[in-house]
């Protein structure tokens, strides 16, 4: 397992075999006979850009008609610091927001909870109540700017709060657009910010999707994260296969309530990973668009073209970045951006070069944005759609990648489906083992990382770090206490009781959540209601 | 009968769930013949220390990615001392700037392994330090 390929040499030092992490074996030369061998058919396998199965691109004109959306992940400190960083990024030409929340918020804890000590505002913005969203979104045009909310276990709460703040600021809630990450199955496989029992958590995701159909029609209520699954050790074929199976799990959750998938499946988006082998990544996204479109059409009877598109963020992966000689990560990021552009990414972001050290500094965050802008504006990547199409090599491995993705899906479905195999720890064990093999590949020098295990120098690194300011926690707790002092406590209690009632009854929790948000109930109070009703998740042992 | 294997508790303290590093280290230590107990996520300092004592661990390895390592290590070391278990070696890995290493050592953390440390180095350190 390695991120680029396994290279096998003969005695003369020539490369005799190249095997990609997904298992695709690459030949030295490709020609027309390869297309013949795979039975390549232009209409069936590719189609014109903007038409089914969307292998080439979601849109007929690709980047000629719309540039990609740049969406750097940002947020730290109190809502005030985050609001300033967002305005800096938007002022520099960024076109969407992607909110980082601190860990207490992600775990449903208020900033004054003893378990939150030392973590308030550290890895993202602290949000305790609607008051904080009012500060964070002050001066942001919520009709124009769409917002990714990188949060999962309590995503339903944040989606309700987003609507509440838009309403407070006078925006038409039918015109706002947020993308809560809201993928709890992936959270169990990687990233780990889960709280409630997994079945109940899947039901909450169903509630958000169901609610968005009428209340927030421009929102993408879930963003399925192959990204974190790959960061946890999956290869590229598994990343796509598991993401599609997770999406199907959420679709089925809503379909079983009596809805037709045609009402909402087009609002499912993805967050997918880019690092490692450039060609394999391009093949992955081309094959992935095709597999997803076919899955929706054949399994759920969806026909509307815009609903069949694989939408989302194709973002540079943190796993490919190294701590040694951190400036090298700037170059790595640029190549991941290139892969994103050659894959027709609609929305993109890069990890910043100093993330192995800390939250990105303003300078490194801007550098990531500039990298993406240079790729789009200065080197010709928007000239023509799907520029690698027709390459004997690319079409062959795109076809092989499609087969690998389908095989990985089948393996899990034959074993009883995604949810069952995540609960049992089967998928988690597989990923942990592959992550271990990847690390060993670096240590044994089989996987080359320049400046790490090849051409390494022993110099001491000087990185200008983003500083955690202890005063954020003090300020945030003071603000929270002020909210608790000034709100109507009896109204809060009444709305939390109403929330508990709907949570128990199985009805959709979203309207009650919004009411609770508007009464300035805190994230911790709302999450505790869910924890009380649903119980905690118990993770399987995977090592 | 062979020698009793080295026993390591690998723990993820606090709220962070980025556990790839912890799992990889746990698997590497197992491969090296050690007995490994992985606590799972979201553990409090109290429960980690209790596990380490109950398991009679030789080493308690903490994985911290959020920047909260100094705060967490201080609590763990103090709690181990208070429980009379200061003989359990504490090691920490994760996102740790080199400027914090002296502080961690002063607190009584025996081994500090910032991200990027070869795993073999951590394995060798445990073998050398415990035996």
Keywords:
heterodimer; A: 543 residues; alpha/beta; TIM Barrel; 5-stranded parallel beta sheet; 4-stranded parallel beta sheet; 12 strands; 8% strand; B: 131 residues; Rossmann fold; 5 strands
In short:
The complex is a heterodimer of chains A (543) and B (131). With 543 residues, chain A is α/β, with parallel strands linked by helices.
Domain count of chain B? 1
Count of extended strands of chain B: 5
Cα radius of gyration of chain A in angstroms: 23 Å
The largest pleated sheet of chain A is described as:
5 strands, parallel
| Terminal-residue CA separation of chain A | 18 Å
Indicate the CATH topology of chain B. Answer: Rossmann fold
State the domain count of chain A. 1
N-end to C-end Cα span of chain B: 18 Å
The SS-based structural class of chain A is alpha/beta
Write down the overall geometry of chain B. globular
Mean pLDDT of chain A: 94
* Oligomeric state, counting identical vs distinct chains: heterodimer
Uncertain ranges of chain A: none
- Total DSSP helices of chain B: 5
Q: Kindly report the spatial arrangement of strands forming the biggest sheet of chain A.
A: 4-12-11-10-9
Shape of chain A: globular
CATH fold description of chain A: TIM Barrel
CATH superfamily of chain A: Methylmalonyl-CoA mutase
Protein model, in words:
The complex is a heterodimer of chains A (543) and B (131). Chain A is α/β, with parallel strands linked by helices. Chain A has one domain (6-443): TIM Barrel. Helices cover 48% and strands 8% of the residues of chain A. Chain A is built from 21 helices and twelve strands. In chain A, helix 8 packs across helix 10. Chain B is α/β, with parallel strands linked by helices and 131 residues long. Chain B has a single domain (7-126), classed as Rossmann fold. Chain B has a five-stranded parallel β-sheet with strand order 2-1-3-4-5, sandwiched between helices. In chain B, helix 2 (45-54) packs across helix 3. The two termini of chain B are 18 Å apart. The model of chain B has no long low-confidence stretch (mean pLDDT 93).
